[in-house]
Specification:
Layout: H1 4-11, H2 17-31, H3 34-41, H4 44-54, H5 59-72, H6 76-84, H7 87-95, H8 100-113, H9 117-124, H10 134-145, H11 158-165, H12 169-175, H13 182-187, H14 195-208, H15 212-220, H16 223-231, H17 242-245, H18 250-256, H19 266-280, H20 283-291, H21 294-304, H22 308-331
């Protein structure tokens, strides 16, 4: 005899829209609690494919389904099952056919699915050379062209997807390919008013800098936007004097010579300093950093810093610069 949950899952396939909608609403309610999630997990093999099919239904069904999947995908085992039944492709196929509220939920679903290696591979489409990376390029384009000023920004969480895929070497190398120019597009979102976008950009830059040893030229191709994105968050709150700004690129110097809004999130400041550290580990990276008067910016920024973890990150970069400066001088 079927259990209540088995009957509920059967109702998801009902030809009656009101019955289907009622069943979906109950599932959504269950996914909102730990006990409910645990009970649904036992039926994931039948539940998840049915929910996936319902993503193409009208909004009154699709929206609670998307909310349910976002909640369910926080469980890594369930997220793995979703990836295996093609949920990444389904989400991408439907993303641009739904209204902004549902699109936002689908992006959040992709954030959870790309926390798994299998999810990253699926989004990158690594098994098909003809379509390799097309999903990611579409997401980057949407991330960079949608407005963060809207109350409901459907693509702001794309930054978190980019952080996830850049944790893997294949993802970093894809983003750093100069022919695609994706990193430059992403970096330009660092001045967004959205804290979620800012954190996504800073985390992606930091992750990409793990390839500095082999792909530093590709990273430095974005210097015009890279140095402001990394240095402005850690420059402190002083208005810089001309004797300092005159040794910087014009845009960076102008930004530091006026009053500006500080980056309040210490995690973003730490990520910027970690990226700088990875760049200046390389001799060419140190030369580039000195050429923009980077050490002076860190010196002044450190004076204003109060967060212990951020101060530690400053000190790590400073120690490397002092040590490598002596080594560089001896080698010349």
């Amino acid at each position: 005899m079927a259990t209540e949950l088995e009957e509920l899952i059967d109702f998801l396939s009902s030809p009656s829209l009101p019955v289907k909608r009622a069943a979906v609403d109950i599932v959504r309610g269950l996914t909102g609690s730990d006990d409910g999630l645990q009970s649904l997990t036992k039926y994931s093999i039948t539940l998840l494919p049915k929910l996936s099919l319902l993503l193409g239904e009208p909004k009154e069904v699709c929206e609670p389904v998307a909310e349910s999947l976002v909640n369910l995908s926080q469980n890594s085992d369930l997220a793995g099952t979703m990836v295996s039944i093609g949920m990444v492709k389904t989400s991408m196929d439907l993303l641009y056919k739904q209204d902004p509220g549902i699109a936002r939920l689908l992006v959040m679903l992709l954030v959870n699915l790309t926390q798994l290696d299998a999810g990253i591979s699926s989004l990158l489409q690594t098994e098909d050379e003809r379509t390799y990376g097309l999903h990611v390029m579409k997401l980057v384009r949407s991330f960079c062209t949608s407005s963060s000023e809207k109350l409901d920004d459907p693509f702001e969480h794309v930054g978190s997807i980019l952080v996830n895929i850049s944790k893997r070497e294949a993802g970093r190398r894809f983003l750093l390919d100069p022919k695609r120019g994706l990193l430059k597009q992403i970096i330009r979102q660092s001045d967004s008013a959205s804290p979620i976008r800012k954190k996504g950009v800073s985390g992606t830059i930091r992750n990409c800098c793990f390839e500095a040893e082999s792909l530093l030229p590709n990273i430095l191709l974005t210097s015009e936007f890279l140095w402001p994105a990394l240095l402005l968050p850690v420059a402190g709150n002083k208005v810089y004097r001309e004797e300092d700004t005159s040794k910087m690129p014009r845009e960076l110097g102008i930004a530091l010579s006026i009053e500006r809004e500080l980056v309040s999130d210490p995690e973003i400041r730490v990520q910027a300093l970690e990226a700088i550290y990875l760049i200046v580990l390389q001799e060419a990276g140190r030369r580039a950093f000195w050429s923009v008067n980077g050490p002076r910016i860190l010196q002044l920024g450190y004076e204003d810093e109060e967060d212990a973890k951020v101060m530690e990150a400053y000190e790590r970069v400073g120690a490397l610069l002092v040590e490598s400066n002596g080594t560089d001088e001896r080698s010349t």
